[in-house]
Amino acid sequence: MATMEPLTLISATPSPFARMNRIALALKDIPFELKNEIPWESNTETPKYNPLEKLPILLFPDGRPPVYDSAHIQEYIVRKYAERGPKLITGDVDLDLQIRQIVVLSEGCLDAIVLNRWEERREATQQSQLWLDRQNRKVDGAMRAFNALVTASKDAGKEYLVGDELSIADIAVVCTVTFIDWQNMRPGWAEKYPVLKAWVDALEQGKEFVDTKPVMFDLTEKIV
């Protein structure tokens, strides 16, 4: 196979969204350079590539238009590099719809966490408890759904959520649950969902997961 010129993934060090893409790129042995930014700080280059000013962003060495949004990047990776194992999807339309639905669920949960955290950074008198409650319901609902998915898979004697091999669905759930744990958002979740905990811990032993654990950045500019 010809040597590939590396891609560039713009990320933020704690980002579970970018972590999904980093794991997929590493599993498929796609060379890439990681560039870390804080997308809301004044010196960021993020708006240059994504008008929504969000990460992650995938850049190409030949100057093609960038790809942004973690799920969209995952879709590009599995389709563009389908010949590189692991496939990370099944190739079956109905099963792959399930896989992508789980990715959507994971990203929605992570979006709720981000909205929750920013609201909590406001002055106490400016916070909306109704807004916080809504985001927390999303997180709790997603955790129940993750647990149900893993339990159903285990009951069926399967190791992975959809199909017989690791997919972007498994990656998405692991990145989401471990981020919740890392943020200490749901103390006691491991005792509440022991099957989910054991499943996540097993996948987290993989090198690609170990190498991409989140690291907090230093927030220096106030935006809320």
UniProtKB/TrEMBL annotation:
Q: Where is the GST C-terminal domain?
A: 92-224
SUPFAM superfamilies the record matches? GST C-terminal domain-like, Thioredoxin-like
InterPro entries recorded for this chain? Glutathione-S-Trfase_C-like, Glutathione-S-Trfase_C_sf, Glutathione_S-Trfase, Glutathione_S-Trfase_N, GST_C, Thioredoxin-like_sf
Q: Name one GO biological process term.
A: L-phenylalanine catabolic process
Q: Name one Pfam family in it.
A: GST_C
Q: Where is the GST N-terminal domain?
A: 5-85
Domain of life of the organism in this record? Eukaryota
Q: Which GO terms describe its molecular function?
A: glutathione transferase activity; maleylacetoacetate isomerase activity
Q: What is this protein called?
A: Glutathione S-transferase domain-containing protein
Recorded source organism is Setomelanomma holmii
Organism taxonomic ancestry: Eukaryota, Fungi, Dikarya, Ascomycota, Pezizomycotina
